[in-house]
Structures are given as structure tokens and as C-alpha cells.
Design goal:
The structure is a single chain. Helices cover about 15% and strands about 40% of the residues. It is α+β, with helices and mostly antiparallel strands and about 80 residues long. A 4-stranded antiparallel β-sheet has the order 1-4-3-2, with no helix packed on it. Strand 3 and strand 4 form a beta hairpin. It is elongated. It starts with a strand and ends with a helix.
């Protein structure tokens, strides 16, 4: 399940540098246009992951995804 989050505290409009200062570098490459951060994990394995899309080095979209199984693509980054 993916949903677009319109939270008022959203990082929309932040630069990559501001995102790194707020959330840390994580496993993201600075040159990528889509970054992800694991926000939480429940005791039974549900993970909440935030995806940020960048255009011209500024956040243009924020998505939240809930997953039960670790995505191999996310592990490789």
C-alpha cells in the first residue's frame, strides 16, 4: 500500500542538504532522485517507509509505504 502524505510538517520544498540534516544520510546516494527512510517497525514486522522524490535537488513529493517483507532493492542501496 502506498499513499501520498500531505502532512503539514512535510519536507516538501526542502533541499537535499536540509533533508540530510533533518533525517540523516541513511542508505541514500546524494545523486539519486528518490530517497527512502525507514520510519518505524512494529514487533510483528510491519515497516513504515517514507519515500522522497526530488526535482532540481528539492523535494517535490513524499510517499509513505507500509511493507511486511524487506524489499531486496532497498537492501542493495
Amino acid at each position: 500500500m502506498i499513499r501520498k502524505n500531505t502532512d503539514s510538517r512535510s519536507p516538501l520544498g526542502m533541499t537535499k542538504k536540509e533533508v540530510v540534516e533533518e533525517f540523516g544520510k541513511g542508505l541514500n546516494s546524494y545523486t539519486d532522485d528518490i530517497w527512502h527512510y525507514k520510519l518505524s517497525k512494529t514487533w510483528w514486522g510491519l515497516k513504515t517507509i517514507m519515500f522522497l522524490e526530488f526535482e532540481n535537488n528539492m523535494v517535490s513529493a513524499k510517499y509513505i509505504k507500509y511493507v511486511f517483507k524487506e524489499n531486496k532493492r532497498l537492501q542493495e542501496k
